Amino acid sequence: AWANRKAMRQAKQAARLATLEQLPQEEEEDTSSPIILEEEHIEMAEANPPPPPRRTLGEYGQRNDGEIANLGFQP
Q: What domain of life (predicted)?
């Protein structure tokens, strides 16, 4: 899995370098560097998405998967 990810990252960087070379050299590196950092953050997010957390509101009367509702506070 790690080798695959590394190969994908290298391929993306090679493609990015190729597109950067095709651009006119008038642009400064200051304008392109934040874009590259942004792309790498997005790439890392796509490479290993965490499982979505179960969103619960504690035990205060929220239904649990169709079961009977929790009676959170009974004086």
A: Eukaryota
Task: Give Cα separations from 66 to 16, 28, 50 (angstroms).
Answer: 49, 58, 25
Task: Produce one character per residue of 25-60: b if its CB has 16 or more CB atoms within 10 Å, e if not.
Answer: eeeeeeeeeeeeeeeeeeeeeeeeeeeeeeeeeeee
Residue 39's domain spans which residues? Answer: 1-75
DSSP E strand boundaries for 1-75: none
* pLDDT tens-place string over residues 28-68: 545 444 444 444 555 555 566 666 666 666 555 555 555 55
d(CA 33, CA 21): 14
Rounded to an integer, what distance in angstroms lies between the CA atom of residue 12 and that of residue 36?
A: 11
Query: pTM, whole model, 2 decimals?
Result: 0.24
